[in-house]
Amino acid sequence: MSRFLAGMVCGAVLLFVGMHYHVVRGKQGVFLVPKISNNLSEVYVDIRDFQITDWQKHKPLAAAMVKNDQSDMLEEASTSLFRGQVDSLVRGLFE
10 Å Cβ neighbour count for 34? Predict the structure, then answer.
């Protein structure tokens, strides 16, 4: 019975983290980034080798990183153009 309850608690914690956070692996380690909308998309994303096309496919993650002041993890190769696009996207979401 105690194993069942421990499994239920563990599952509930994992579901909560998956619904509310992106687990992001970057060059500096693993980080939790709060999601903008609560869903089970993009729970774990490895951004170590991301290019501009990858960021365009993961716009909710990029917007969450900018909104939560974790944009320093965005790669330098895509900073100028992409950050401008994400900033306008974030402004559009919250205006």
Answer: 13
Distance, CA of 52 to CA of 57 (rounded, Å)? 9
Contacts of 58 (CB under 8 A, 6+ apart): 42, 45, 50
Domain range enclosing 24? 2-94
The total number of structural domains that make up the chain: 1
The tokens describing 61, both together, are 């993650």
The pLDDT confidence band at residue 77, using thresholds 50, 70 and 90, is very low
Can you give the pTM of this predicted structure? 0.71
As a whole number of angstroms, the distance between CA 46 and CA 25 comes to: 5
Residue pLDDT, tens place only, 19-47: 999 999 988 889 999 999 989 989 999 98
